[in-house]
Records
---
Amino acid sequence: MSNVKPLGGDVYEIDTRMAGYAGITAGYLILSDRPCLVEPGTSGSAPTVQRALTELGVGAEDLATVVVTHIHLDHAGGVGDIARMYPRSEIVVHEKGARHLADPERLMRSARMVFGDLLEPLFGELKPTDAARIRAVEETGEIDLGGGRRLHSHHSPGHAKHHVGLLDSLTGDLYVGDAAGIYIPKTADVRPATPPPDFDLDTALASLDKFQALRAQRLLFAHYGPVDAVSDTLERSAEELRIWVDAVRDARDQGLDLDHAVAAVQERTLGRYKAYGPDADPELAEKYEMLNGAASNVAGIIHSLDKHA
């Protein structure tokens, strides 16, 4: 079965099959005059992405641009591999992430501390990209897609300080990365993504307000897929963030440890997510817990609360 799905407007969703899982991480090819890959996924996903681009008629010399919303390994871990496979492509990233793509040693060392033996099967190794091929964008930026079509980047920290959203001038698609959380297509759930060390509630909410103001026609989630209900989904994302942070703040004020804070969040959000409900497919919940674990989210919120305290 092909892992490529046409979404209209010369946009193609590519299931990057992170760690072999289907429907958990999406990259997107904009097949414009200057083809652009948004979110290449992990290093382990690079051969999968390459096969998809070949299926779509994009050869080694054809890919003009690779853009990442941020440098977390499920989004950008394959940048070095893809850069080698497509030697004419320019790599676009926020300025706060650029040096880590050129020299990933510090990022990989940190990832090994967090993931240990799981690092290799989940993500693989982020390989360095020639700094001369990296273009850093700041508060806003522009990617030429050819024929007058452009991707406009908008700095959207809160999930990560190096996060950008990307708005397609032709389709109105907004590539939201993780700034609007995790979308589970099977159940239409929206869950926060609040990992350490960068999560900050006020900053994340400001980024969602910025996304609302862009008046996009559709949201394209890296996890996972297209969503037409733009305003409602962004509002739900903000609501979920507030609920999780309130629950963790209450647990922290009671002196509870991480495990008890996780339990407090799970109790507070009981019934909010069909994917985690009593009638849910346990494999679905397991898959998303691996991607977006409650313990990691709660740890990120605690880190943020401690920083502000």
---
Amino acid sequence: MMLESLLEAELCFPQLSNSSCKKIMRPSTTSVFLYITLSFISLITVALNMLVIISISHFKQLHTPTNLLLLSLAVSDFLVGFLVIFQILLIDGCWYLGDLMCIVYNILDYVITTASVETMVLISIDCYVAICDPFQYPNKVTQKRVCICVSVCWIFSFLFVFVVMKENLGEPGSFNSCSGECVVVFDQIAGLVDILFFFIGPVTTIIVLYLKVFVVAVSQVRSIRSHVATVRLQGSVRVTAKKSELKSARTLGVLGVAFLICLCPYFCLTLTGQETMFSASSFAFVLFYFNSCLNPLIYALFYPWFRKSVKLIFTLKILKTGSSDANIA
């Protein structure tokens, strides 16, 4: 009798002893740590990215092409914060929400993740054009073009997810080996396209563009230092403008590097076929989602406008008439 009770405690659905999945058994302290860590990441991710969304949406001065890209990234990061809640439910390795919700969750996860990856590619392109072709930047990178590119990214993510998950949509749960499992399967072609378009391709593009930006930025810094002592007033204005561009590029570069550091371990484990839900790869999984919390912290560290806007939000000054026209740059 005691043995039966122990076996039931290890099952996701004790009433389905023959078909139920087994729970992941771990020390209670480890489970509590995971609960607290993921809950903290979820709360902070939602709160910080909400501040970014409010800031860029409310203040007209922040309606720049670069900030529109940051807004798209903040929206995806904000939604990731809610997705972490589902992962909290999966700490013991059991899915209790049914097969249909499993598919819905995976679709949302796929769309948000791929849109985030595509947005990071757009941010790297924006940084590249701003540093390597600054004179043509205002003509090449406009608000209208950025809005179109962002819209295409999200629409493409929505459409492509139904292509890669077509086998799972017809009969949800058909690939589950036991009750309490949440599994989706891609066919070989869809999996290959997914890896090329949403991992290898984007990562390669981001690395190549940022390396080019780094080379040009170093060259410009040397140029500024060699002329800073002899420039006239008009020249000093140009130098100041260049320094501003380099600072912005540095911030976007930090954003890109952080993204790659958090993204690559997760995808590398996925490519090797290892389980990514709180097993040996738990660190890579948490790191992947922590990136959505890290991005607003980078803005707070490097962007004065974000710190000023947050101050106005917490003091409720954004509720005043004309607050959207405030100078916070």
